[in-house]
Amino acid sequence: MAADPTSDIADVGLADDGDARIEWADRSMPVLARVRERLAKERPFAGLRFAACMHVTTETANLVRALREGGADVALCASNPLSTQDDTAAALVARHGVRVFARSGVDVETYYRHIDAALDIAPDLVFDDGCDLVNTLHASRTELLGGVRGGCEDTTSGAHRLRRMAEDGALRFPMVAVSESTTNDMFDNRYGTGQSTLDGIMRATNLLVAGRTVVVAGYGLCGQGIAERAAGLGARVVVTEVDPVRALDALMQGHQVMRMRDAAAVGDVFVTATGNAAVVNTEHFAVMKDGAVLANAGHFDVEIDVRALTSLAVARRRVRRQVEEYVLDSGRRLLLLAEGRVVNLAAAEGHPPAVMDLSFAVQALSAVWLAREGSALAPGVHAVPADIDREVARLKLLAAGLEIDAMTTEQLAYLRSWRQGS
Ligand SMILES: NC(=O)c1ccc[n+]([C@@H]2O[C@H](COP(=O)([O-])OP(=O)(O)OC[C@H]3O[C@@H](n4cnc5c(N)ncnc54)[C@H](O)[C@@H]3O)[C@@H](O)[C@H]2O)c1
Predict the structure, then answer these.
(1) Residues 395, 304: Cα–Cα separation, whole Å
(2) Of 22, 60, 261, 276, which has the fewest Cβ atoms less than 10 A away?
(3) Are 264 and 289 in contact (CB under 8 A)?
(4) Ligand 1 binding pocket includes 257 (Cβ within 6 Å)
(5) pTM, two decimal places
């Protein structure tokens, strides 16, 4: 297939490397492969145009392949300026007939220009990861709104923004919160973010985690996964929270719980996963140890107050790929990873494909649902239908060669009845 001249990627010559890695990821994505086969047969997206704003990774490439097999024309842009894998982008353009507007390390202006370019496809369905595409559509590409049947949102922070849009009466079409599906929450956020965040920190720094104090801000599913993996590697884990129930959960999991202002002085590594802004700020930089490592796993680069850190620093230099050293006037050095952007995608490869297999199979099946029923759904944020979650989990077990029990008729009758007690 000829490369699409309308794309904007780093180097089409990287396509062979990208294709080999896409194929490698595909080996760990058996559920998505089954869905892809089904889509190829049923062609539910024939004649439809999709615009996707997602991390341009090998796993996303396999989702896009499935959408293409279903008949869709797809334009893809990046949902983060640092997460693009340039070889994957090249393979999608050269081998899979996708228009891609993504290069690793672009500035903010180019990032939004790429979103605009992807929207030029005039989408029937949209796929977002952080709500930047949906936001742009509503802010500056309103001429396209009438053509959009609906879309999928892939991350917690994006679903949060969509809800605020819906409350303001601004959201003009139905969006499925894929990030809130059971399979996504339980597996993607916990195991995917948990493992890959530690992977990103280790690749960036080559730090020995054992014996260190790792401070995790936010004990949602992402924070829980990060805390579990850090503890598994031998770290002492400190959790900071604003929600008392989640803080109590952290305590009962065996972690220390304290305020960030107290944790700041004892932590060796700080990881934010709150979806909130300035969780690590000037007050905390002021007391951190020399050599403290700062990493963010939350979707937006606002969780560590990088602007404040920059103005506090008397000197600043890059000491390793993805590690920027900020020297404070006391002489202490703080090490910021990946500019405060999602460390697991910027410094590692994001979630392993085996876990994205679930999220993207849910996403592909949600797209089928939207393509068929989207016009009947009200504008707003919709849950993934429960049968999609169950079907995806069933296929994953099947792929692992595992069977589970089915309830007997007597058990079903027992659970449906209220007459039988002790
Ligand atoms: N890096 C990735 O690959 C990846 C994957 C999935 C989600 N995310 C992002 O990670 C973030 C967290 O996702 P989640 O699903 O765990 O969200 P969540 O909403 O379930 O959990 C966030 C937690 O942070 C807490 N929090 C909020 N403000 C805080 C503060 N000031 N200090 C301490 N804790 C605070 C909340 O009480 C909540 O318990 C979101 O931005 C999400 O989009 C990233």
Answers:
(1) 39
(2) 261
(3) no
(4) no
(5) 0.88
Tell me, using a 6 A CB cutoff, whether residue 219 lines ligand 1: yes
Residue 30 CB partners (closer than 8 Å, separation 6+): 357, 395, 396, 399
Q: Is 222 left (phi over 0), alpha (psi -120 to 50) or beta?
A: alpha
Residue type for position 28: S
Å from CA of 223 to ligand 1 middle:
7
Ligand 1, residue 351: give the atom nearest the CA: 3
Residue closest by Cα to atom 32 of ligand 1: 241
Q: What is the CA radius of gyration of the chain?
A: 22
Question: Which residue is it, tokens 């390390």?
Answer: 105
The tens digit of pLDDT for each residue in 42-100 reads 999 999 999 999 999 999 999 999 999 999 999 999 999 888 999 999 999 999 999 99
Q: Is 138 helix (H, G, I), strand (E, B) or coil?
A: helix
Distances (CA, A) of 123 to 71, 119, 128, 161, 333: 14, 7, 12, 21, 47
Could you give the 3-state DSSP secondary structure of residue 115?
helix
Name 99's bridge partners.
Answer: 75
